[in-house]
Amino acid sequence: MTKTELINTLDYLNTVIENYRADSPDSQQAASRLSELVNGTIGIRELSFIGQAIGRSFTNSELADLILASKANQPLNEAIQLPAEADAAYTIKYQRRQAGMTQVQLAKKIGIEQSQLAKIENGSLKVSLNLLQKAMTVFGRSYIVKAL
């Protein structure tokens, strides 16, 4: 499905959900299809994290970009611009998973507790530049702060 087709599908499903009674078969079918499209490709925690980071509802264009990125196995922060701290936290979690590491393993390598890493990855604790540098060194990667 192309981005345009995906946006059109999302527009249609949202229109049905908004204009039909919640208990109608059409509304329930549209809600189910929307859930399948979004939650079937993007993890609910990732979607929630990104939504909290941007501080607003997603546009259908953004949802389409996220769905397509997820289906292509690409990092979601390449599909939508996140604030720097959220982007860094997402990158650490994404790279850790790509490396097949647990939070315990990475935390030990960068000199923090697993609980601190969990809080960084879920956005409740801000990552310092020094810690980000240590994590990226473990992954053999660089991190570039993107301009807004």
Automatic annotation (TrEMBL):
Q: Which SUPFAM superfamilies match?
A: lambda repressor-like DNA-binding domains
Q: Which PROSITE patterns match?
A: HTH_CROC1 (PS50943)
An annotated Gene Ontology molecular function: DNA binding
Name the Pfam families for this protein.
HTH_3 (PF01381)
Determine the domain of life of the protein's source. Answer: Bacteria
| InterPro entries linked to this entry | Cro/C1-type_HTH, Lambda_DNA-bd_dom_sf
Domain annotation HTH cro/C1-type: ranges: 92-144
Identify the SMART domains for this entry. HTH_XRE
Q: What is this protein called?
A: Transcriptional regulator
- The organism encoding this protein is Lentilactobacillus parakefiri
